[in-house]
Amino acid sequence: MLTENAKKVLEKRYLKKDSEGNVIESYDDMFKRVAKTIASADSDYLGKEDIEKTEKDFYDMMINLEFLPNSPTLMNAGRPLGQLSACFVLPIEDSMDAIFETVKNAALIHKSGGGTGFCFSRIRQKGAAVSTTGGIASGPISFMKVFNIATEAVKQGGTRRGANMGILRVDHPDIREFITCKANSTELNNFNISVGLTEQFMQAVEHDNMYELIDPSTKKTVGMERAKDIFDMIVEHAWLNGEPGIVFLDRINKKNTVPELGEIESTNPCGEQPLLPYESCNLGSINLLTMIKEDKSGFDYEKLERCVIKAVHFLDNVIDVNIYPNEKIAKNTKATRKIGLGVMGWADSLYTMGIPYNSEQALELGYEVMKFINEQSKKASMSLAEIKGVFPAYDKSVYPAQDIKVRNATTTTIAPTGTLSIIAGVSSGIEPVFAISYIRNIMDNTEMVEINPVFEEVARKRGFYSEELMRDIAKKGSVSRMTDVPEDVKEVFVTSHDIDPSWHIRMQAIFQEHVDNAVSKTVNLRNEATLDDVREVFMQAYALGCKGVTLYRDGSRAAQVLNIPKQQHKEAVQPGTVLIPKQRPRITTGLTEKFRTGCGNLYITVNYDENGEICEIFTNTGRAGGCPSQSEAVARLVSIALRSGIDTAAIIDQLKGIRCPSTIRQKDLGILSCPDAIGRMIEKVAKMNGGLKEEVKRTVPYLHYGETKNSADKNEKSFESRLCPECKAPLESDGGCMICRNCGYSKCN
Predict the structure, then answer these.
(1) Bridge partners of 89?
(2) Known catalytic residue: 724?
């Protein structure tokens, strides 16, 4: 049965609407529309009665929330757009014509509701010679910005925002610039980025060796880097804001089922679907919570087998009824017929069976259930091959050598199921639950406590349920420190931040063992996690056979530091509290530097106190004029922010990168604008005093307004401080993406 929140998400994002935006389709009608469209693919193979039975099977599976396909299928099946795939990979060759052809194809995909993955490794490095024009190459990062702007334009006109994955090989000469390209929170916001790591590089990291940088055009060595330095750089930036992630390219290609068709260079935006150029993949997820026996002793494997068979049939049919963005994508997708069947509701299933997520028992069960799903999906694909034939590229695959005839080159993927899990009313993918209880805003600013249904059932049955307790849990997200909750219940109902990072990786690795493609999973770290914690996550993922890993440290984005959620722990500022800046010190020390701007000279003075903490900024313009009032306003506001305890790195992040039109008219200015110059000067002084390095390396939580270093409790996280841009409810890190469980907003779709 659909929850009220599921109905709201369906009405807002999935159901048909008229020209005035009024919903003209029921939930039941949507599932019937999808089932009828997907079953119609059998018309060349089955009779009318068999097709009608298949249609009913598909409908029952969805209406009972046992299986749901990816969002584009629910939205577009049986409608004019008809584009049903969630993820695509497009090639980027090193020529202007090829690059902008890919920009066009990406725009068409985003318009149709899909996400795109790109590998920028073939683009020659910044500063390399361009023989055709005699010019100098601008490098892959400059072209990523072109793709980012194009995505922004399409997003503004569409119903779903586009999402991109950008990958660069670790041996590309511009790897340092790539690793840092999202350090500024205003840049490349429509991209997730991952570094493509090789086995050679990882071995060099382990043995502290140098490795070669390769010119993508000539394939010659153009430089050397110490592997540990680059790896540490990846670790530091992942610690700072969650990007870049990492993918193990050699490992992905070792499992490539059609190696004769080419090398896999990229994945979809969430990292779980490696694809060849111009391929797309259709994903769907089984709701494991619906597969548990009535006595809650384990999974009903007979029911699960039936569901897998129907789900594989469903996803294979999607390939044939799909209306693709262009003919090349249609051809390549149908050549391999890749599908990705996964799961959702894993954490809720463990709750129901009384098994802690962070336990050996959970790992053993995960191995068992995914092995079963993978094996049954292969059997289902073999049965379809007997009726409909093998996939066209079968002879170029690994299967003839194994004497296996299958309909699909791949059958399993663990995808993020953010909005799908809201519709199903269960936990997402194989992620642990992010919060046991949270406060959801409904109409007229009324707040309603949303409780995990499995926990609520246990709380009522065990007699410790109360509205006050549920609201208390919502403020903290976790029950780990709630004295009113029995210890055995706390042991089972762990949340994402209760779990040591190693359990996140171990669970991902266990599922990966029986998944053809890859596993989408975010390792959610507490705010106080250190650089060593991040390094350990990456190395453990490599050691345990994962194909990639994404992590996010709570509170690590600059925008999150400044957010004041309505529900926060007691030490945070209360409504109505006024933040008063400290008085200016009587004596300060400072540096003044002259910057040449597009309007003339700008003199910037940065003063700091006896402890080296920056406390004020002054600006002065030269005779050529400029905009002295705006520069002074920026300096005054920055000075107040600094004396109010706002993070220096956050201020620098906001100022650096701001561009002024006057800088375009002149070359070699070294800055982008007056605010950019102010940010650079603050950064210079902060680094000189050691303050910025200390902030970057810190291992204590960021402080919210109204907190001091003594009042911040390291053991309590502010799990609700990332807010949804649409409804202002808290966002969760989910499968390499961001999802709002209140309205269904997703960063990736």
Answers:
(1) 117, 279
(2) no
pLDDT for 129 beyond 60: yes
Reply yes or no on whether the pLDDT at 430 is more than 70: yes
Q: Spot the catalytic one: 241, 268, 282, 452.
A: 268
* Alpha-helical regions (H) of 480-582: 487-492, 501-512, 531-543, 558-561
Question: By three-state DSSP, how is residue 339 classified?
Answer: strand
Domain pair 87-261 / 589-697, same fold: no
The CA distance from 8 to 692, in Å, is: 45
Find out if CATH 1.10.287.1700 is the number for domain 87-261: no
Q: Say what the pTM is.
A: 0.80
Catalytic annotation on 268? Answer: yes
What is the reported pLDDT for 747? 73
Strand 221-226 to 210-214 pairing: antiparallel
Catalytic residue among 87, 119, 181, 270: 270
First to last CA, the chain: 24
- Cβ-count burial 570-581 (b if 16+ within 10 Å, e if not): ebbeeeeeeeee
Q: Please indicate whether residue 726 is annotated as part of the active site.
A: no
Amino acid, single-letter form, for residue 65: L
DSSP 415: -
Using alpha carbons, list the distances in angstroms from residue 50 to 18, 38, 45, 55, 387.
34, 13, 10, 9, 13
**Burial class of residue 424, CB neighbours in 10 A (0-12, 13-18, 19+):** buried
Q: Give the residue extent of every domain in the chain.
A: 87-261, 435-494, 589-697
Task: Judge contact between 365 and 352, C-beta under 8 A.
Answer: no
For 343-373, how does the pLDDT look when each residue is reduced to its tens digit (9 = 90+)? 999 999 999 999 999 999 999 999 999 999 9
- CATH code given to domain 589-697: 3.90.1010
Residue of 272, 431, 450, 716 marked active site: 272
